[in-house]
Amino acid sequence: MMAALGRCARRLLLLRGFPARGARAGSGPGGGAAAAVVTPPPAAAAPRQQHEEEEDMVAALRKNPDYHGFDADPVMDVWNMRLAFFFGISLCIVVGATFLHYLPEHGMRKWARREAERMVKERERLGLPVLDSNYFDPSKLVLPAEDEE
Predict the structure, then answer these.
(1) What is the overall mean pLDDT for the chain?
(2) How far, CA to CA in Å, does 116 sit from each of 83, 90, 124, 132?
(3) pTM for this one?
């Protein structure tokens, strides 16, 4: 993301006639003007590939002033930008938030409370005490014989 923003800023500077490299503010971990880093001007013998790439960017920006950085063709640039924002915003954020909203609750606390309230009402309806010292009915438990221990 930051690299894409850096490329866009570099393209705008090239379009306005400024050099590709210069003072960069806020590039450090602290950001802001206190972290400004001044880089030396580019050497006279800049790499040929970078120079050609910058010329291509300037040509694309002059051809299409509303250049979004997706394609040199203006029509494809707009369509690619729209698709990127549709999938990035609509699908990721909206569908992702909907998915997270409808996830089952963690720990099932609400279900446990509803189940406890249902059990209390059932025991009150049958005339049994709400709480019993035996969790299971002792007459239904099968215990091992004492001589097997």
Answers:
(1) 77
(2) 50, 41, 12, 14
(3) 0.34
